[in-house]
Amino acid sequence: MSEEKICIFWFRRDLRLNDNAGLYRALTSGLKVLPVFIFDTDILDELDDKKDARVHFIWQEVKSIKKTLEEKHGTSLLVKHGSPLKIFKDLVSEFPVAEVFTNRDYEPSAKERDKAVYEFLKSKDIVFKGFKDQVIFDKSEVMKEDGTPYEVFTPYMKKYKSQLKPFYLKSYPVKKYISNFYKCEPFDNISLSDLSFEKSNVEFPDRNFDKETIRSYHENRDFPAKKGTTRLSLHLRFGTISIRKLARLARKENDKFFNELIWRDFYQMILYHFPKSVNEAFKKKYDAIKWENNEEHFKKWCEGKTGYPLVDAGMRELNETDFMHNRVRMVVASFLTKHLLIDWRWGEAYFAVKLLDYDQASNIGGWQWAAGCGVDAAPYFRVFNPELQLKKFDPENEYVKKWVPEWSTPEYPEPIVEHKFARERALSRYKEALS
């Protein structure tokens, strides 16, 4: 083995070879680049469903990158399975590593993982460098005049747009430096069974941008029976598309869609600055709410058997496809936290298990928004009426009929809680906690 120093590029939630910030930095570092992906057992061991579609999706994308590197670029992707710290201890003993490059992850557990890897590499005089890739602005790039983080979206969005120069949306020209990979024979493949997982039957959405869907997004996005959203959230979550490329198009075609991308950056910024929001209400007083936490009601909510057709349709769509329309996500979250007075953390945890596009920052942000306890949240006295939401956003009942075929038949259950009673109970309980 040659002792010429090399660097490692560590793929994580950036599974693409084009317009990849950290990969570009590695390829232009002057060192040959060994690409690595780690199937992290600290994450995988927590997953009970051995047909978890996210694992299948990641495995599929990693396999594709490895194949491309081997067939077109004379290198390979080294795929490992284990704890990242242990893997890096092995890697630096096997290869003459001078530097490690990666893209940042802002989730608290990821920051702890990276800190441990950083400290180990530092002890070996190996530089560990992280770069911004999954967002346009991160950490403290968009802040209030006093240097503190924004806690309300609209002023954040305005500052964001005022700061947004073409530079921030430029693609990284990875292809120009693609020859700077470490030359090697193909590494061994890892199968799903090697990971103790199986293939999922879930259909993965297309990553190609549908310009017409983006152009009409503001008109169609709230109607779950229409194909009014891009379904790109999965690809943004795992970095199989570039946020910069999508943002350039969104900025040009539809400001409402562009704002949704800004919400994504906003929630990542909030999670970075307020990591305790993973388990605690952003607005501390809301942790005093006396939840009902009725386990039977929670089970019926999970199964889509609440007697409220729009809620039930959403939960059944989620259980069958690992996806739920965003408007319906708001309705089911409001229903759980306000109608059933069940702790938002229960719902957030259920979504964390089920959602193909699960992103911790956005999911926590969305659930705390619905419960009234998060940044820029819906006020506690805003309680979605599921029947009115149905009439407004599924007026022909197309969505409900698709997912709740027994609706309007004797087989369909009665509502598990009456709307007026539930609303008044929620208002009283919230008011009591906040007084």
Key words describing this protein structure:
48% helix; five-stranded parallel β-sheet; 7% strand; Rossmann fold; DNA Cyclobutane Dipyrimidine Photolyase, subunit A, domain 3; alpha/beta; 20 helices; Serine Threonine Protein Phosphatase 5, Tetratricopeptide repeat; 435 residues
Give the DSSP E fraction (strand runs of 2 or more residues).
5-15%
Shape: globular
**CA radius of gyration:** 23 Å
The name CATH uses for the topology of the largest domain is: DNA Cyclobutane Dipyrimidine Photolyase, subunit A, domain 3
- CATH architecture verdict of the largest domain: Orthogonal Bundle
Low-confidence stretches: none
Query: What's the count of strands?
Result: 5
- Output the number of helix runs: 20
User: What does the main sheet amount to?
Assistant: 5 strands, parallel
Helix content range of the residues, please? 40-55%
**Mean pLDDT over all positions:** 96
Per CATH, the superfamily of the largest domain is DNA Cyclobutane Dipyrimidine Photolyase, subunit A, domain 3
The helix-strand sequence is EHEHHEHEHEHHHHHHHHHHHHHHH
Judged by helices, strands and strand pairing, the structural class is alpha/beta
Site (Electron transfer via tryptophanyl radical): 291, 344, 367
Keywords: Chromophore, FAD, Flavoprotein, Lyase
Binding site for FAD: 217, 229-233, 257, 260-267, 357-359
Pfam families: DNA_photolyase, FAD_binding_7
